[in-house]
Amino acid sequence: MGRLIKSGKSIVTGGTFYVALNFCSGLLMGWLMGLPFKETMVVCGMMTSSSTAIVAKVLTDLKRTANPETEVIMGMIMFDDLFIAMHISFLSGLILTGSSSFWTVAGTSLLALGFILAFLILGRKLVPAIDRVLQDKTSELFTLVIFALLFIVAGFSETIHVAEAIGALMAGLVLADSQYIKRIEQLVLPFKDFFGAMFFFSFGLSIDPMSLTGAVLWASIAALVTILCNVASGYFASRFSGLKKRNSVDIGFTLAARGEFSIIMANIGKAGKLLPVIQSFVVVYVLILSIVAPLLTKESRNIWNAIFGKDKVEKKPVKTLADLEKQAGK
């Protein structure tokens, strides 16, 4: 959370364009597909949520973590995660309460939003106390404390109709400011890989493969729209951050990956007994972008050069030995 605050106006501006363009693309797809309001809101969330896990892995595998655009990408990811947290709180109030009353939905949504904001504000003030609890702990006690905090926060968020994933995200944002962050990362990395695989596996088991054919066309259109919107938001982000124009495709293609949060919102729709097309749509949509986005990111420089040509680099004149002797003689 502290890194997002320090990132500055450029990332906030780029993140705002990113959220606005992708959210509007979700409204467009919902209208084209003729979906009701609740289903359209779920689609908006799916098309706005980038996959932090895929983005981080792509940047690491391509050795781009030290590139100038990477700070912008990670800042926009954090901005997007905060928006998704608020959007899921809205979806929880809209879909999971089972009430059609405006005031009931609004009350549940505001309660969830208040929980998120309070956790972000108060949680950062509790970091020193958490560090004192973690100090001089053995590996076993350290693990127990971290997972106890995680499950308490996730369980409490579930009781107020906020997805447990958002509670876990809030806990992670707070612990990111801890002085023991490196030790925490080493602890949770093996669990992340294992439970991440189980998460996608369990979701795949709940889908009927025969139902996917009807969603291929709409999901393909949505994937194309997402890539275009992300490149556009990447252009604004690179412009406000003082980066080169070619960095816009690096940012846009990297952020185009979709994954865990899109599936979480689809599961909210399933729990609320929304139209089954949402499940089929998200499977094909996530599958396309989780494959295509990393490939586009890998070839982003070549794609830019093929369309706009290579950036002109001014060649400095090479000084000969005679030139150096003349300069020394002066």
Automatic annotation (TrEMBL):
<keyword id="KW-0472">Membrane</keyword>
<keyword id="KW-1133">Transmembrane helix</keyword>
<comment type="similarity">
    <text>Belongs to the monovalent cation:proton antiporter 2 (CPA2) transporter (TC 2.A.37) family.</text>
</comment>
<feature type="transmembrane region" description="Helical">
    <location>
        <begin position="102"/>
        <end position="121"/>
    </location>
</feature>
<dbReference type="InterPro" id="IPR038770">
    <property type="entry name" value="Na+/solute_symporter_sf"/>
</dbReference>
<feature type="transmembrane region" description="Helical">
    <location>
        <begin position="72"/>
        <end position="96"/>
    </location>
</feature>
<feature type="transmembrane region" description="Helical">
    <location>
        <begin position="216"/>
        <end position="237"/>
    </location>
</feature>
<keyword id="KW-0812">Transmembrane</keyword>
<feature type="domain" description="Cation/H+ exchanger transmembrane">
    <location>
        <begin position="3"/>
        <end position="297"/>
    </location>
</feature>
<feature type="transmembrane region" description="Helical">
    <location>
        <begin position="274"/>
        <end position="296"/>
    </location>
</feature>
<dbReference type="InterPro" id="IPR006153">
    <property type="entry name" value="Cation/H_exchanger_TM"/>
</dbReference>
<dbReference type="Pfam" id="PF00999">
    <property type="entry name" value="Na_H_Exchanger"/>
</dbReference>
<protein>
    <submittedName>
        <fullName>Potassium transporter</fullName>
    </submittedName>
</protein>
<feature type="transmembrane region" description="Helical">
    <location>
        <begin position="141"/>
        <end position="157"/>
    </location>
</feature>
<keyword id="KW-0813">Transport</keyword>
<feature type="transmembrane region" description="Helical">
    <location>
        <begin position="12"/>
        <end position="34"/>
    </location>
</feature>
